[in-house]
Structures are given as structure tokens and as C-alpha cells.
Amino acid sequence: MASAPELNAPAGWLASRWTRLNGPRRVAGVDLARGLAVIGMIAAHVLWIDDLDIADAATWVAVVEGRSSILFATLAGVSIGLVTGGRTPLEAGAMHTARMRLAVRAGLLWLIGLALIATGVPVYVILPAYAILFLLALPLTGLGAKPLLMIAGGLALVMPVVQVGLDAAPVWSTAAGQIVSPLIGWHYPFPVWIAFVAAGLGVARAGAGRPAVQVRLLGYGAALAVLGYGADALNGVGPASGASSFWAALWTAEPHSTGLWEVIGSGGFALAVLGACLLACRTVVTWIVLPLRAVGAMPLTAYVVQLVVWAVVATTVLGSAGDLRGFRDLEPFWPMTLGLVLGCTMWALLVGRGPLEWALDRAARAVGRGAPRDADRLSG
Asked: What does the alpha-carbon distance between residue 73 and residue 82 come to, in Å, rounded to a whole number?
């Protein structure tokens, strides 16, 4: 697998940290894409964002809504693919161990997600859904690129139709439904979102480090994005239309709608971003974006830290972690983002692996021996 362009590593005790961030066991473009996804989710959480209007550059920040989390899910699939063998799935014994370790990580991610929900920060925490997606991906890890991409395409076309019915189920308006929804991350519904994970897993099996694959990702992803968003712009279905609620829910690319056009458009967008990041990191750009890669090398730590900081600041300044309007009015995006980028960069260069990534890896490795030592590729 192609790595970043060579650059002389600092001498002495920094060498091992430098190698961890820039060595062949890391895929720089994947780290960059993960870093962008994390920053995009922060922006979606804390910025006042107007509806996207391509003709108005002031609204372009709206691109982060919905798309950042879908990129995050797609990259989960890539990471799972890398840790279970890359282009060639692991043999039976090693695959069994790798799957067990992924299951342990899923359980821990779910628990961390519950802890973040308990802070009262008014966001839809993605980690419970992420955990379920990890588990759903386990049976797919033995497949090659072609069947995985076919499965992803089939799910992307079929499951949005199913999801409309699932979302209309009366249970979600009950007290029990309102409790269960955040516990399973229903804002990121796994029946649809497994398509993004399967697509990412297929990319890993196709060979994410191959230039030809990277070019195809950029081209096909961009084409899917144009198809999805273009169809949404042309179909005339929306809240004010005379269409039935079923068709309005299905034929849409609205962020977090899980409509067919969102799945196609935003899924394509995620693939195009991944392809662009992989291609960029084959050049000197990889050193320019090293701080973003550092964030992407420890995405769980970065995601958790920004929500914990939010909870602490909002409680201290506003008296409540749940005051979304008040917190956004504090204009926290740049302080949080710059602090996170700086902190992750310093940690990566001076300490090494992200603390939560290290803890999850140690817990997962307690399951047993046998999987290859490339867990860095999973989450950092």
C-alpha cells in the first residue's frame, strides 16, 4: 500500500512518534479524511448554518451538515477493511480474532456514547450507531471488493424505502421510543447507514492505496453526488409540495433525512472526498495537512474531547449543557477547532497514540492473540 512521500524523520526520541503518524502502517489519506469529518461534525454542531445555496459562497459551510457524519461512517468501513486484511481478507483463525476484537470495540464505543449522552450536550451522539454498525459489518469482513460494493449499492437503493416505513412506526412517538432512539443512534439509522460502511469496506478490499482506485473513487463519487443532488433539485418534492408524505420522505437529499437522494448524493460525496484525500496525500500536501491528519489519527479522542469541553464550558458559562442557542452564540467553533488540532498534533508527535484509541486497543487485545498488529488503521 502506498504511503506518504518520504521525509526525513526527526532524530532521537521523537522518531517512534513520527513513524507512528507517518509510517507505512498509517494511510495518510484516510487520516486526513477522518480529520475533516471530525472538524465537519464540530462545525455542524456549533455553527449557525443557513441552507446551502451554491450561488452564495457564504452558505457553503452547510456542506458539513449530514455529509460529515456519512463520511465518518464510510471511513469506519475502510478502517474495518484495513484491520481485517486490506485487499485480502484474513485467514479463518486471524479473522475470528479480529472480529472478536471489533465486537469488543463496538461494546466500548456504545458505552462511551451513553456517557456522552448523559452529559446533556444537545447533539445526536453518533457512537451508539457506530457501535451497531461495527457489529453489522462483522459478517461482511470475509467478502471481496466486488460483492461488498454490490451489497452497498443494493442497500443504498432498497433501504431508504424501508426506512420511510420504519421512521413512521408509532413506537418513536412513545416514551419508550424516545428512550430507545438515542441508545441505538436512530438519528443515524443503521438499516440505511450499513450501506456506507459496506462501501468503505469494499474500498479497502479494492486497495485504497492504489492510485487507480483513488482516481475512481474521486470520479465515481463525484458522479454519484451530482446524480443525487441533481435529482433532488429537479424532482420538485419537498415539504411544500403536494406529494404524499411517503414520497416526500423518500425523494429527498435533505441532511439526515436518509432519503434516497441523500444516500446517493452524500454517499458519493464521501467517496469523492476520500479519493481526493488519498490522492492529495501522495504529494507534498500530506505535510501541509499533518495537523488534520493528527486529528484523524485519534478521531475517537477528538470527538469525545470536543463534546466534553462543550459540556464543561456550557455548564460553567450558561448554567446548562443543553443550551444550544446560547452555546452557539458564544462562537466556540474556532477556539474549539484550533485547540483540538493543536492538542492532537502535539499529542501525536510527543506522546503517540490517542488515549482513547490506546485504551480501546488494549481492551480489544485482551480478547486474544492472532490478529495482525495493524490496529492503528482502525481508529488511531
From this structure: 15
Q: Are 255 and 66 in contact (CB under 8 A)?
A: yes
d(CA 81, CA 374): 11
Q: Which among 89, 188, 183 has a CA at the least distance from the CA of 145? A: 89
pLDDT band at 53 (very low <50, low <70, confident <90, very high): confident
d(CA 196, CA 251): 19
As a whole number of angstroms, the distance between CA 42 and CA 302 comes to: 10
**Residue length, the chain?**
380
Distances (CA, A) of 154 to 55, 75, 151: 34, 19, 5
- Kindly tell me the burial class for residue 233, based on how many C-beta atoms sit within 10 Å of its own C-beta (0-12, 13-18, 19 or more): exposed
- Please name the amino acid found at residue 103: A
Total-model pTM: 0.91
Residue in this structure with the C-alpha cell 479463518, named with its chain if needed: 92
Question: Which tens digit of pLDDT belongs to each residue from 122-143?
Answer: 999 999 999 999 999 999 999 9
Rounded CA-CA distance 314/308 in Å is 10
- Give residue 1's pLDDT: 45
**H helix runs in 6-143, sequence order:** 15-22, 28-46, 67-83, 92-118, 127-137
pLDDT digit string, tens, across residues 76-117: 999 999 999 999 999 999 999 999 999 999 999 999 999 999
What is the spatial distance between Cα 220 and Cα 23, in angstroms, rounded to a whole number?
29
What are the C-alpha distances in Å from 2 to residues 14, 28, 86, 254? Answer: 23, 9, 12, 36
